[in-house]
Amino acid sequence: MVIFSNLVNAFQTILQAMQDQETEFEDEDNIVRGRQACWCSERCSWVADLVSQRFAEIIMADPDIGPDDPMPLDCLHAFHSLWADKGCQLAILKGNEYALHDNLN
Q: How far is CA 99 from the centre of its chain?
C-alpha cells in the first residue's frame, strides 16, 4: 500500500510539474482527454459522450488500494506508460527544481 501510494504521489507531482513547466507528453495515450465522439458505421449515426480515460487521468484520480488488494492493472499500465514518456522523463530530470523525491531521479 505504501509503495503504491508513493508511486501515485510521485507521478502526481511529476504531472503537476509538467503542467507548470508546460512540458508536453510524447505519447497521446498519457494525455487527459474529456469526451469524444465516434462514428458508428453500422447505424450511420454519431455516438457521443464516450469517455476516454487516459493514463494521466487515472493517476490524478488519486487511486488507492487496501492491504490485501493487488495493484490495479490500469494503474500498472499507467505507471509503465508515463515512466516511458519522454515528457515525463524530462520533468523527472528537472526534479531538483521542484519537490520530487530523490529516489525517482
A: 18
Domain locations in the chain?
A: 2-104
The confidence score (pLDDT) of residue 55 equals 85
Over the stretch 29-65, which tens digit does the pLDDT of each residue have? 777 654 344 444 444 333 333 333 588 888 999 999 9
Instruction: Decide: 23 and 85 in contact? Cβ < 8 Å.
Output: no
What is the phi/psi pair of residue 25, to 5°? -75, 145
Nearest one of 30, 75, 23, 77 to 54, comparing CA atoms:
30
Tell whether domain 2-104 is in CATH 1.10.400.10: yes
C-alpha to C-alpha distance for 105 and 98, rounded to whole angstroms: 12
Q: Which grid coordinates are listed for 8?
A: 501515485
User: Measuring CA to CA, which residue among 59, 93, 65 is closest to residue 77?
Assistant: 59
Q: Would the pTM of this model clear 0.85, i.e. be above it?
A: no
Residue 50: which residues within 8 A CB-CB, separation 6 or more?
A: 35, 36, 37, 38
Q: What integer pLDDT is reported at residue 104 of this predicted model?
A: 65
